[in-house]
Write the structure tokens for this entry.
Amino acid sequence: MSKQAKIFIDGAAGTTGLEIRERLAGREELSLIALPEAERKNADARKIALNSADIVILCLPDEAAREAVSLIDNPATRVIDASTAHRVAEGWTFGFAELEPDGYARIAAAKRVSNPGCWSTGFLSIVRPLVRSRLVPADFPVTANGVSGYSGGGKAMIAEFEDPKAADYTETVSRIYGLNLQHKHIPEMQKHSGLAHPPVFEPSIGRFYRGMLVEVPLQLWALPSKPAPRDIHAALVKAYPERPLVKVASLEDAAAVKSLDAEIFANSNGLTLYVFGNEKAGQARVVAAFDNLGKGAGGAAVQNLNIMLGLPQTTGL
């Protein structure tokens, strides 16, 4: 890249925005466009910044993200949206580079990239390869559960867990949510996995800042081919050949794991998959372990930025 790429993070003061800004700090090939604090919500100032950038990274609530996109009239400006707003929208490329064989090429050529949600990142890393390999039929009833650090809820939830003066301050250790079975990540989970039906999704929040586990339990005996745990593992290994940010633990390493800490990959940018199985019972638990603010948010956005700029995908990571 011969000249500095101009980057504007709209929403740079939010949880994800701060994570991205930290990863981009000091990168000489980039020029960051920054608005004074007083102008961050000024539509005119934002429009100038949005249209001056080579790539815009949106770290905004859904409606604000849609509004920001509507302000862009420079055909050369490319967008990475970290919100939920465009993850199943036509004309947007889903920004999970490793998910499909041509994922990197799609992102490299894209004008509009939607960054995956943290929950869907874990879910899709497991389910998409299994559906593509036909080990899991598209119409199979899939269930997923998981636990995330409370930073996944942004500044409001961080205050809820950390600020005793907050109106909804809590000292709870763990809680389940999404009890109406309408979690906002479910549409992207279904669409990008290739499932015919929405999965039953059971998320929870733990009293720790960052890190997460997403698990898909499988009754292997109920699948048409009755695969063994090693078959599930082989499909995942085949799906992620030499991927620096997605690893599959060996069956031997997984067998040695007695418990898995949700914070195991906190402050990292990669994701590791584990297959735990009981061949005799015909059962498996497939787990994705990663940082909700890393591969689940800011790290993924920077990876996509690098790909769009033609840089090594792990630059700054």
Observations:
- The radius of gyration is 20 Å.
- The mean pLDDT is 97.
- The first strand starts at residue 5 and ends at 10.
